[in-house]
Every structure is written in structure tokens, then in C-alpha cells.
Amino acid sequence: MPDELDAEALAFAHRMFDLARAGTTDELAANVDAGLPVNLTNAKGDTLLILAAYHARPETVGALLARGADPARTNDRGRTALAAAVFRRNAEAVRALLDAGADPEHGDPSAVETARFFDLPEMLTLLGRS
Q: Considering the domain boundaries, does residue 35 fall inside one?
């Protein structure tokens, strides 16, 4: 079995990452429900959840978490979905990730470190580190 995806499969995967970035929640969720791995990762290690959090798509974050997305996953640079949501100052996504068990101290930089570095006291409060 080849290790590389064919052009059609690769195009489909890229489209799924685009749906996460765009917050096209219903279509992305339908594909996950149909068998798309919820923790699908791109070449940079970004999961669908990390991309949705980074692009401030709290509804998509919630839908992915409801389908079992792992909030502890890091990308190749050590970043988590929670740190991405903090960076984007998206309180709704931060709360959803925390409710799903995301650790504010996990990652490099962690969500707490991100909030401190960018002087985001409201995010530190959400993270319970005010």
C-alpha cells in the first residue's frame, strides 16, 4: 500500500482543512460523521481543531470536540488549539476547549504563556490564571 495519497484524496484533504479555516461547520461535521478522521493532520501538524481555533470558528471547534477531536494535540511547532484560541481572543472557543479538558499549561508556548506574552488579561482570567 503506498504511503502517499493520490491527487484526488489530497485535494479532498485540503478541502477539509479549508472548511475548518472557513468555519463551514455543517459540511465538515458531515464529513467527519461519514468517516473523515476527526484528528486529521496537515503537513505542518495542524489538526482540523487547531485550524478552526486559529481562525476563530467557535462553532466548528465545538462540533469537532463533540465528535472526539483531541484538544491536547500539538502541531509541529508545539502549538495547541487552546493557545490558538487565546491568541485570537476567542472566548467562546477557549471555553469550549477548556470544557473538553484542554490543559492551559500544555504546548509551546502554552495558552497561559500566549496570554501573558500578548498581555491578554481577559484570556488569563478565562484560563483561571488572573
A: yes
